Amino acid sequence: MSWLQALLLGILQGLTEFLPVSSSGHLAILSHFFGLSGEESLTFTVVLHVATVCSTLVVLWKEIVWIFRDLFARQSWRSYNGLNEGTRYAIKLIISMIPVALVGFFFKDKVEEVFGSGLRIVGVMLLVTALLLAFSYYAKPRQRANISGFHAFIIGIGQALAVMPGLSRSGTTIATGLLLGNRKEKMAQFSFLMVIVPVLGEALLDAKDVFEQGFSTAMNGISPVAMIVGFIAAFITGSLACKWMINIVKKGKLIWFALYCVVVGVIAIIFA
Question: Residue 262: pLDDT above 60?
Fold first, then answer.
């Protein structure tokens, strides 16, 4: 992988990670045209996801500080009702991470196989993403003031399913939350915060592979320069896209992304 390919993939990751169009699907498509292998693409994809997690930390730092401040504030731990708002929010985030943690722990090898299975699965999953976004746009469920623990778990299942390349993580989680009746502005923030720990956990597992297999073997031929260039590109564009996406969700304009996913999905299937 050249540094120019890494730059383009990094920019693409940063722009599409927060938009509901599947960053993994777009990376798979571009990697296919670059002639990159599935394993090489997956290793680099994890690095780019860490970069966009870092951009999330920068954009949503106030919310993260609020959560930690409330976690360490004086409160009653004897019952859920005795907990403050930030602590309750943290518990819901943890609940939402359980499904994807189970998938990553028990089915990591299967997921890696799917990433090398070609564009057809990417195209099909992009069409599924389009359906979810369309349903969430036209459905008008009763609005809820706050995300419940049960809803957090259901949204977490959506995130777990989104390990499939082409099925947008942000699109799936936000659409699932909206279909459950949660407010738009709350869902965008919750969706972006719930991915932080799982992605960092995946990065730690990859770091473990680096130490066990040796740096050159684990990197699958990707140079350190390419890694750094891709990381920086994804971080910068991700920071901009995160702010943009929060405003888009608040305005409820997700139907245009559904149409986009249909077009890209059909193209991916044709060229598969």
Answer: yes
